[in-house]
Amino acid sequence: MTRSQTRGSKSAVASSEPVNADAIGPDLLTGDQVIETYNARLPALRSLVEEVRFTIDDALATAGISVSSLESRLKELKSTLKKVEDKSYADFDQITDIVGARIICMFRSDLDAAKSAMESCFDIIEYDDKSISDPASFGYMSLHLLAKIKSEYEGPRYGKIKNQIFEIQIRTICMHAWSSIQHSLEYKGFWDVPISLKKDINALSALFYLADTQFAAVFAAKTAEFAKAVENSSGLEGVAFNAQELDFETLTAYAESKFPSRSANTKKADVSKLVNEIKMANINTIGELDRQVSRGIPAMEADENKRGSSYNIVGAVRVSLSYASKTYHDITYPSGPISRPFMDMVIPE
To answer: Rounded to two decimals, what is the model's pTM?
Structure first.
């Protein structure tokens, strides 16, 4: 399911297969009661799906949490009937996952942050943290929350949806991948697994856990490298920083320090492309880069004044370097040279 999809909202009432409304049991919630209540609440349930998704998206953005994807769905009528039959509910409101959302985080370290964001925007009724279970177990899956719209929210927008419980699942990419594979294997629990496969299942589960751990470690190391590069770049004349090898982290720190008044809102792909171009021009350290960029800055500034708009930090490095280094210019424009009208403003070596 993609980030923009809401599963089941269009097909919750109609079903191509007949439903046995009396199959649930005389002393429990009947099929007819489920159908009647579901259809009566359907508009409100659809509204709740939209409200939950919007609120989660906003809360994650406010908290600065980057996620792989956000999914939301309304359980179809047929699936709801099947669940009531399997679980033997006595009341429709006991079905807590008719509306559901799933947050797919990048790393395990994001799980607590995402949970805190959910606590800030919903009333949490129940926690079920499967993410801290034995990593070699079959149940290595996710954090589940049961929630409601905050009780203090008032008005017609919330009147029909604020008392409906819904489910939020919070997983990492690895947890989600393992859960998807587990679902395809059609084993509901470890008790279902043949003895001959249990060791393999345990090993696979542990591998997913290890991958989760290693991804988090790599990200933490990357963050530390960037922090170190930023600290070293506080004095661009520093020998240590000038001697640092050019890479994604050091170039980003350099550009932000060299052009502090310019926009740092850049695409990661643009930074990566710039690193590759610079290295192809045989510029391998921050010191070498800074010498060339500094020579080209006057020409770059004249160039952007003529354009009538400002370069961001990546553009400023790229254009300055294009003026100062013919090798870099030829790599950047392999089809032939472009006009560089301010070459006379380049500082001589």
So the answer is: 0.60
